[in-house]
Each structure stands twice: as C-alpha cells, then as structure tokens.
Design a protein that fits this description.
Elements: H1 7-17, H2 21-26, H3 31-61, H4 67-92, H5 97-117, H6 121-150, H7 154-182, H8 185-207, H9 250-262, H10 265-280, H11 287-308, H12 313-336, H13 342-373, H14 380-387, H15 389-406, H16 411-439, H17 446-454
Length: 455
C-alpha cells in the first residue's frame, strides 16, 4: 500500500489522541522541559484567575476608584499589553527565551507588590500598565518556547497548554470565590499576594528548564548555534525571500490583521453573550455562570482532540473555515434568542455558548499554527511577537465593538457580525493558502528524476 504524505504525523496524532489528557500531560511533546513549563503555566494562570476575579472589586472597594477611572485604567493597560508581544519577540531574537520569561514573571511580581502600596489613580496607571505589558510578553515567550521545544508536535503541546491554563484559571476563580465571600480589604489584599506568589513559583519552575532551541534552525538565544544546519528556504524559486522584519512583510501583516476579528470569540463569550442574556432575552440570569462552566469543560476535554486532528497546513486551513461557520451560527442563535420564551431562550443561549467555544477551539489551533507556518524559521521570534498582537488588540477593541455597535444594533448587529467574521475567515484561508503554496518546494522534474534513477 502506498503511504501518503503526512500519514506519519496523522498516525502520531491518532496515537496521542488515544492516550488521554493526563497521560500526555505526564509525557508531553518536548519531554521534561515541556512538562515543567506546563506546570509553570498552570501555576501562572491560577494567579491570573485570582486577579481576573478580584481586580475590579479590589480597585473599587480598597483603592476607591470610580467606575470611569477603572475603565480608563484597564483600557490603558490593554493598550500597553499590545506592545508586549512585539517587544518580547524582538528581545527573543537577541537573548535567550528562558531568562526573558523569568524576567516577565518577576516584573509582574514587583508591579503587583506596588499595586498594594498605591492608592491613587495616577500611581496605579503605570503600575497596572506594566503588569499587562509583562503578561502579554510572557504569553508570547511561552508560545516561542513551545515552537522550539515541541517542534512539529507544537499543536499537541498547544492543546495541552490550553488545558493546563484553563484548569489553572478554574482553580484561581474557585480560590477567588472564597476571598470574595469574605469580602474584607484584607481578603482582597491576600488574593493579590497569592497572585504575586504564583509568579515566584512560575519563575522558579522556568529556571529548572533548559534553554529552548529551534529544531529547524538550531537557533538558541537568538543566535546561530555553531554547527547547526542552515534554515531551509521558505519561498519558491524565482520569488524573493520574506523580509526578515515582520513589519515589512505585507503577507504576514495581512494574516495578523485578519486574525484580529478571528479572536472575537473571546469577547463574545466573556462580554457579549452574558450582557445580551441579561439585557435582551428572557433567559434566567443564573445561566451566566453555566456558560463559563461549559466553556471551561469543553476546552479542557476537547482541545487535545481537535488539535491532533488539525496538524499540518491543509488541516489547519480547514479549521479557519470552520471557525467562520461556527461564529456565524453562534451569532445567529444570539439574534434568535430575543424572540424566544424563557426556557427556549436558555437552551438557545447554551447552544450558542457551545458553538462559540468550538469556534474558540478552532481559532486557537489555526492562529497558533499559521503564525508559525507563515513565519520564516530564521526570524520566527520577531514574527511571533507581531502575531501575538492580534489577541491583544482584540481584547482592547472587542468589548467596545460588541457593546457600542453590535448590541446597540440589536439582533441585526449579531447577524452582521457573524457574516463579517465568516467572510473574513474565508479571505484569511485563501491568503494563507496562497502563502503556504509559495513556501512549498517545487515538484521534481520527471525527466531529471528518471535520468537520476537510471544512473
């Protein structure tokens, strides 16, 4: 039987998919270093879960900021976070990833300690901005670590990292619920300190790993490793090589720009769906926590399976199209929920939560894989830094887009949003497919091959 191209990786994915989540967490792609990094990521995200659940209330009841001041504070911090991804990518091209990631954890440790000592808006603004800058930088460096450590199995590692991260967020939110139930200023400060402690533990764990080395280029610490094989060409004959700077690479910038609306599932789930439920439907308000539980459970249980089935350029392009279809279906259900009775609306909104979670799973695979596949291997750090901006920009622009435009337009706004995302997903798929084809090596000339075989 003739073996088709890519069958080996598919077989590997199928075998991994049958191992189970816990088994693969014990033996992830990348071995010992990857296992330690996944533990560090889970600890980090546990602290982030504490911060996400308590930060707004801390700023309200302990530092006594007004809602307007909190909005400006978090908005400015989100803008600072956008700069974190390209900054981390730039630095990772010149310095080792491991100490940079440790530095990000320590930066956030210092800023959170400063949060406890600052009481005014002017003092908190640069401190919170620096916290978000370190947060986004750390996420980019974790992504780069995965591409260097897991190699071709980076999609499986990414699935494990998302499962570990969601489990960490869940634990952090559960711990925050205890603190919020107490409700005292000391309880809020204890949660901030617990988040700071998570950065200390994460930094110590990262310190136990070795410096990640790119399996293709042999690149480590942003430099060529002596004796390493040269990076393979990523462009076809007769075509110019992609620029070494992502800021001059129009094709890659087009991908990053199109990836911003692909990330809107995050704002739809966290902002749009809950607000739409309570303001425009007759569904019970107690359904909001159920939506978040559904998302967490599905991500933890399905991410690995979906990632294993989306490895390779052709399969990952299919996930881009599926993401667009799922987002359109989710938005259509949100539009329809306004015309339903109480329990019918509840079922429709739960179905929308399932669909937006599936879209999130598809997008997480496609954004991750395409950001790597479309980047020149010898300039991957800088490229991945720019790719990380799409999620940061969405986190800043997504909520006001949904609340100020989509929801203000009513059900028609959701239909327009779903149609736009689906259409842009189709455009992104075509653009990425064309770029990937330009990277593919030319087919061998049959006459030359026959002469070579005759020799």
């Amino acid at each position: 039987m003739r073996r088709t191209a890519g069958s080996g990786s598919l077989g590997k994915a199928q075998r991994d998919g049958g191992q189970g989540l816990l088994a693969q967490l014990r033996n992830p792609p990348g071995g010992r270093d990857a296992r330690i990094m996944l533990l560090a990521l889970a600890v980090d995200r546990t602290g982030s879960g504490l911060w996400a659940a308590s930060s707004v209330l801390y700023l309200t009841f302990v530092t006594h900021l007004s809602p307007q001041q909190i909005g400006v504070l978090l908005g400015a911090a989100g803008v600072a976070g956008i700069a974190g991804s390209p900054l981390a990518g730039r630095l990772a091209g010149c310095f080792p990833v491991r100490p940079l990631l440790i530095g990000c954890h320590l930066l956030r440790l210092v800023t959170l300690i400063l949060v406890l000592t600052c009481t005014g808006f002017a003092a908190l603004l640069p401190v919170i901005a620096a916290t978000y800058l370190g947060d986004r930088s750390a996420k980019t460096l974790e992504m780069l670590f995965a591409t260097r450590t897991a190699g071709e199995r980076r999609a499986a590692y990414q699935a494990l990292s998302r499962s570990a991260a969601n489990a960490g967020y869940g634990v952090g939110a559960g711990l925050a619920a205890i603190g919020l139930a107490v409700g005292t200023a000391e309880a809020y400060r204890a949660m901030i300190l617990a988040n700071a402690l998570s950065f200390v533990v994460a930094a110590l764990l990262v310190r136990r790993t070795g410096e990640a080395r790119d399996p293709v280029t042999g690149e480590a610490a942003g430099r060529e490793v002596p004796g390493a094989a040269p990076a393979p060409s990523t462009h076809g004959p007769g075509e110019s090589a992609p620029p070494k700077s992502p800021w001059r690479d129009r094709g890659y910038l087009r991908f990053v720009l199109l990836d911003i609306p692909m990330n809107l599932d995050d704002s739809v789930l966290g902002v749009g769906l809950p607000l739409w439920l309570v303001s425009s439907t007759s569904a019970p308000h107690a359904l909001v926590p159920a939506v978040l539980v559904i998302n967490t459970v599905l991500v933890v249980t399905l991410q690995l399976t979906i990632s294993n089935r989306a490895e390779g350029p052709h399969r990952v392009l299919r996930t881009v199209a599926l993401n667009g279809v799922l987002m359109f279906a989710c938005c259509a259900l949100l539009a329809a929920a306004t015309r339903c009775g109480t329990w019918t609306a509840a079922l429709v909104l739960l179905a929308a939560a399932v669909l937006v979670t599936l879209a999130e799973l598809m997008r997480s695979v496609s954004s991750w894989e395409l950001a790597v596949l479309l980047a020149p291997p010898d300039a991957r750090a800088a490229y991945l830094g720019v790719a990380g901006m799409s999620q940061s920009i969405q986190k800043s622009a997504g909520p006001p887009l949904l609340t100020g435009v989509v929801m203000a337009a009513g059900p028609a706004g959701w239909l327009v949003l779903g149609t736009a995302v689906a259409g842009l997903a189709y455009v992104q798929r075509r653009c990425c497919a064309a770029r990937l084809r330009s990277f593919a090596p030319p087919a061998p000339d049959r006459t030359t091959t026959a002469v070579a075989e005759a020799r």
